[in-house]
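Render this sequence as a predicted structure.
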Amino acid sequence: MRTLLAMILLLAFQLANSANAEPRVIKVGTKPESVCRGFGDKLYVTIINEEEPGDGGVNVVDGDKVEEFCRGMNSPKGIAFVGDFLVAADETTVWSIDAKGKTKVIAKKEDFPNPIEFLNDVVAARDGKSVYVSEMSHPKWMFSPDGERQLWPVDSKDAKCPETGCVYQVGLDGKISLAVPAGGKLTGPNGVTLTGRGDRQRVVVGDFFTGNILSWNGKKMTTLAQGMRGADGVEFGKGVIYVSSWPLGKVWKFDRKQKKLTVLSDKFTTAADLFYDRKNNQLIVPDMLEGTLTFLPLD
């Protein structure tokens, strides 16, 4: 009996310590922005670097080992793995990257049906042949000069939205179509993901300026959640939505049934485009200004 009690107490102690343990954090490069799993189930991270032409690219993470995978980009943002290629958005260019790190431009500024300024997040489409890419338009209109990474109040007259933010679908073959139109509730689209299947598929967008999480069904925009300003990465879990905030340095969990918003972490400087690692039940969060990836375990 005493042996059993001792084992129970030891297990409880280990679980308590595990719950309170600090998340694993590793350095991955200068200004990491987005991360996904790709070739060999390894992690691939976009690296903005010093924002000199051509010095940006992708690093590969294998355990604690970090290596340069490719360079030649300017300021890469979102990344996704689709059709045996990594695809990255680089403000006015969309790149594909093969397993050897060879890069290819699949869409450039003049290929888009409307003027673009700031291609940002990327999510793989369900067809295995294309991605959805958010066109944020230049975000400088959102920020007040009175503070570092400080957004204007939502109702501020100084925040003059250009109403050009939208989402495109870009094929590996370079074919481009408008997936979510500009205007209406959409002000500064950043994080983009998908939910549902078949006719019930929706494109879900995190609006960076308002903090609203919006769902587009092809005809109508619906607000799924609110209160997450600076929404950068957006991912769906079981009954929940995970959102990271670049200017606020936070990661949230929104319970869709209870309509409850919970802060999972507020310890980031700039929580960029997170990745929901379902296999290991964790969020992987780049902190751009810290140059790190944080592995945030989930319950």
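Summary. Residues 2-20 form the longest helix (19 residues). The CA atoms of residues 213 and 224 lie 5 Å apart.
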